[in-house]
Amino acid sequence: MMTTKTAEGPKRWTPDRLGDLTGRTILITGANSGIGWEAARILAERGAHVVLAARSEAKAADAVTRLRAERSDLELSTQILDLADLASVRTAATAIRERHSRLDALVNNAGVMALPYRTTADGFEMQIGTNHLGHFALTAELLPLVEAANGRVVTVSSMAARRGAIDFDDLMGERSYRKWDTYSQTKLANLLFTLELERRLRAADATAIAVACHPGWAATNLQGVGARMEGSRLKEVGMKVANRLLSQTAERGAWPTVLATAGDGLAGGSYYGPEGIAESRGPVGTARFPKRSLDEDVARRLWEVSEELTDAEWRFGERGD
What we know:
Blueprint: E1 25-29, H1 34-45, E2 49-54, H2 57-70, E3 76-80, H3 86-99, E4 105-108, H4 126-148, E5 152-156, H5 179-203, E6 209-213, H6 222-230, H7 233-246, H8 250-262, E7 271-274, E8 284-286, H9 296-310
Parallel strand pairs: 1-2, 1-4, 2-3, 4-5, 5-6, 6-7
Antiparallel strand pairs: 7-8
Helix pairs in contact: 1-8, 3-4, 4-5, 4-9, 5-9, 6-7
């Protein structure tokens, strides 16, 4: 079984440790709100060129406007990307390859949580289609650009991964759909993907690495979307109250992402998150991999199923330049 590695001494890490990121290009999915927007802000303020990927040009443009309202000199660009539509994923990847010869980091951040049953443009259950399969296909398309920069694929998981299990017999929840179980499955899939990607990168003597992180419990608009889609005002209010009482800010929730994306001395197969109570908040450091995420047989099978579902073609050892 793969031995996961960690960075040296990330205890009480804060973005103040970041050096000058001028010259680096970082793509963040779901960068228009929440921890994606906060990570984009922190990284851009350190000099990185941040590509903000969002489902619509309006969302992306609004995110840029809000970022430049704080600092007008930030180096930003946008990309329309709908992870719930593989055609959009491929179109976006083509556009990114045309504009960039390298990516220092691809940050798989976007996600949906605990939605009523919905399907993607390709017929996948919405949560696994967005949180896992869309990012799986995007990473396959853009990996040569990451390798060209000796860069990182960073995938954002969740504390919910601890209670996740991959149900290969009903992966799309067609026979039995429980929205929180399905969400947990997708977040476990994020970790299985990261570790399997890292194994395949090492087997190919590739120069990129794969790293994972989670935000703990961060107050974002993600928590209320499912309740609004259900039309449950009570659940939506309950989420807002819980956020107010129990969560940390979206900015603090973004710190593990920033560490995984641009921190010094990280090794492939690392996992970062808050180190406070139940890893829900507090100082940023090494997170614990759930036992199920270390099952290489499950990871290999999930990879193969994901390849079949998305028609993704992986080109390890190729460089975008």
